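User: Hi! I have a protein structure encoded as tokens and I'd like to know what sequence might fold into it. I'm fairly new to this, so please keep things simple.
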């Protein structure tokens, strides 16, 4: 699985924030549960200013020795009127390694992350990485990608 280096403009996100860590595979157990909470609480319905067509996003940020923050939400056109239980975040423009994903989403994401973590010479910046799910309609996935911030 090769990657392409790309430069992206700023991305604005509103979503739910969670904390996790990779130690003892904790994130492997947590992240699917974070997605379940996002959907079961119907969070998407409360996110204002969503871009059309829908772009769901899962951001990995605030990396530190104790773990990192995961934000699950949607890309938005502006960070205004953020509901109290959610957070808004702007990911600044930057350079990324772009990885495509194919197949069932959960399985494809796990396989892609396993591959990404095995690339010894990937110059990761550990600022913010994200999975982007672009939809044709609310329930029809068009494309899924992972963006890794690089130095």
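Assistant: Happy to help. Inverse folding works backwards from shape to sequence: for each of the 151 positions I chose a residue that suits the local structure. Here it is:
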């Amino acid at each position: 699985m090769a990657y392409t280096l790309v430069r992206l403009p700023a991305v604005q996100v509103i979503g739910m924030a969670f904390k996790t860590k990779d130690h003892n595979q904790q994130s492997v157990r947590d992240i699917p549960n974070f997605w379940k909470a996002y959907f079961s609480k119907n969070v998407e319905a409360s996110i204002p200013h969503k871009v059309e067509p829908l772009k769901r996003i899962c951001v990995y940020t605030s990396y530190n020795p104790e773990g990192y923050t995961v934000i699950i939400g949607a890309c938005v056109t502006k960070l205004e009127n953020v509901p109290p239980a959610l957070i808004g975040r702007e990911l600044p423009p930057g350079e990324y390694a772009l990885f495509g994903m194919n197949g069932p989403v959960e399985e494809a994401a796990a396989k892609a992350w396993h591959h990404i973590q095995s690339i010894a010479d990937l110059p990761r910046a550990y600022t913010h990485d994200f999975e982007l799910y672009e939809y044709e309609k609310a329930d029809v996935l068009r494309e899924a990608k992972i963006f890794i911030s690089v130095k």
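A useful reference point when you look it over: Residues 22 and 67 are 7 Å apart (CA to CA). Feel free to ask if any position seems puzzling.
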